[in-house]
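Because showing beats explaining, we let one protein speak, sequence and backbone structure tokens together, and leave readers to judge.
___
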Amino acid sequence: MNRTLVHALFVITVLGLGLAIGYINIPDAWYRSLAKPNFTPPDWLFAPAWSILYAMIGIAGARSFLDQRHRSPQWPLWLAQMILNFLWSPLFFGLHQIAAALVVICALLASIIAFMLVSLPQDRISALLFAPYLAWVAFATLLNGSIFLMN
């Protein structure tokens, strides 16, 4: 299979699903009514930040998918973090389940770290592509936890 096509399909799929989930679960009056810490970013920042991150996640996913010959848990970890990522917004914004979303984002953070650790020896590029994602999700975990404690 053409590697460029696989990369393009992964980026388009991850970006498309991520943006669709974000669009369906746009912050509403409920979210605006919550007490939030003073370090909460403005709403407009999320779509561009996630667009960049989803492109990087898609590239790492394509690389992991194409390089499964090592029989490492890299590909299953990529899938696991993607499921957790796509689950968070519907839980938090859609169902208003702050505590459940906090559990999911903590698991997401752990899966990102695990993916990076497993990827590092065999695919340093994929591990590095996840570094900004790790930073963003660590921040989002702090934000989710703060909102949980404040509400």
Observations:
- The domain at 3-150 is CATH 1.20.1260.100 (Ferritin).
- The two ends are 50 Å apart (CA to CA).
